[in-house]
Amino acid sequence: MVQGYDRLFIEFVYYFNVERDYFECHEVMEELWLEEGRHPLLQGLLQVAVGLYHHANGNVSGAVKLLTAALQKLDPQPEETLGIHLDKLRRDSAEYLDKLRRIGEAPFAPYDLDIEVLDPVLCDAVERLIANPPVKEHENG
Predict the structure, then answer these.
(1) Which residues of 73-109 are buried (b: 16+ CB within 10 A; e: fewer)?
(2) What is the pLDDT of residue 139?
């Protein structure tokens, strides 16, 4: 643990912001979510990643379902928590969801969202992973 940040959470931010590997985000966050008693905040973050993964793989209805569920879990959470700017991610996710709901009239290609890291300790931990990437324990296939 890095000053209050679980290794799995740091890896989640790394896979989300750097690798853009939303499948791996799901894998590491699900493990953390189960370890931490299934906290809705962690599940909401997991669901954002899975929603982006679904859209990237052509499953628009799955993406809508997951992003909707994510926002329901993230909405009651503080604007800033876990060293991240959660409110920005909520707003970006809501905008993405709105676009998905209108995709028939206004098609768009999948794009990445960013988790804005506010805590320098978390930022440094992610930077260390950039220098020495984690070994993926899970392979999607």
Answers:
(1) bbeebeeeebbbbbbbbbebbbebbeebeeeeeeeee
(2) 55
Concatenated DSSP letters of the chain: -BTTB-HHHHHHHHIIIII--HHHHHHHHHHHHHHTT--HHHHHHHHHHHHHHHHHTT-HHHHHHHHHHHHHHHTTS-SEETTEEHHHHHHHHHHHHHHHHTTTTS----------B--HHHHHHHHHHHHSPPPPS----
pLDDT band of residue 136 (cuts 50, 70, 90) is: confident
C-beta neighbour count of 132 within 10 angstroms: 7
Mean pLDDT of 18-38: 94
Q: How far is CA 5 from CA 10, 84, 123, in A?
A: 7, 12, 11
Quick: pLDDT tens for 30-83. Answer: 999 999 899 999 999 999 999 999 999 999 999 999 999 999 999 999 999 999
